[in-house]
Amino acid sequence: MTLPDDLRHDVRTLWDYHDMGHDLRPADIGIGLGSHDLGVATCAAELFHAGMFPRIVFTGANAPTTVERFPRGEAVHYREHALELGVPEDAVLVEPEARNTGENIAFTRELLESRGIEVESVILISRPYQQRRAYATCKKLWPEVDVICASRPLPLDDYVGSIGDADRVINMLVGDTQRITVYAERGFAVQQDMPSSVAEAYDRLAQAGFSERLV
Question: Domain range holding 170?
Answer without folding.
Answer: 5-16+155-207
